[in-house]
Amino acid sequence: ARDLGRVLAQAAGGDSATLVSETILRAQSQAEYSPDNIGHFGLALPAYAHFTSPIRRYADLMVHRTLIGLGTLPPDGMPAGDAARLAEIGEQVSATERRAVLAERETTERYVALWLAERIGMEFYGHVTGVARFGAFVTLTRTGATGLVPVSTLPDDVWTHDDTTQTLRGRHGGMRLSLGQPVTIRLVEATPVTGGLLFALVDPDVGADRVADRAHR
User: Fold this and answer.
1) Distance separating alpha carbons of residues 109 and 157, to the nearest angstrom
2) Lowest CB count within 10 Å: 29, 106, 137, 177, which one?
3) Which residue segments constitute the domains of the chain, with CATH numbers given?
4) What is the full DSSP assignment across 77-142?
């Protein structure tokens, strides 16, 4: 955790800060609630209990009830049956929290797509945040919205995806799309119902030259 903290500190304030942060978050396993005290990886603490005051989550309520039950406070602590079901409750709370996060993300994506639907054809700055055989994902700088640049919209070439280096490369033209690469895109399609966005690269050859120059330094 301390090593990752140093990496984040070194990237802070630079062009790659957001990309580094996102990559580290994706590489980590999802957090979950459990009665087993395994500490906190991100904070590098050997022992950790998560709760907030005022109470915002059911997990917070469970911790508050436990503290009340251990003290000489009014008899409204944790019911005896819940203590035996802590592992089960932890799994349920973890699942519902992940569902809530997903719902929040999908709602945000749909509202952003609704806003962008009136801006079809406009150009935006962004950076590549993901690559796959079928295209590249670009996150816009101002809105944080992420859309797809389909490989079918790229210059005519034989495109290969390298999962190790996370790059998409044209075999003959030499154009390359890689994580963190700054790009300018044109908004082609926005679908508010699903939150989906389709982009097209603006002057992709220029972007390719930048990557090639940077790779040869």
Assistant:
1) 32
2) 29
3) 31-113 (no CATH), 120-215 (2.40.50.140)
4) S--HHHHTTHHHHHHHHHHHHHHHHHHHHHHHHHHHHHHHGGGTT-EEEEEEEEEETTEEEEEETT
CA distance linking residue 23 with residue 129, whole number of Å: 9
Give the tens place of pLDDT for each residue, 146-174: 999 999 888 888 888 888 888 888 888 77
CA end-to-end span of the chain? 31
HSE-CB for 85 with a 13 A CA cutoff:
10
Q: What is the pTM of this model?
A: 0.71
Question: Which residues 6+ apart lie within 8 Å of 158 measured at CB?
Answer: 170, 171, 172
pLDDT by residue (tens digit) across 56-108? 888 888 888 877 777 766 666 677 777 778 888 889 989 998 999 899 999 99
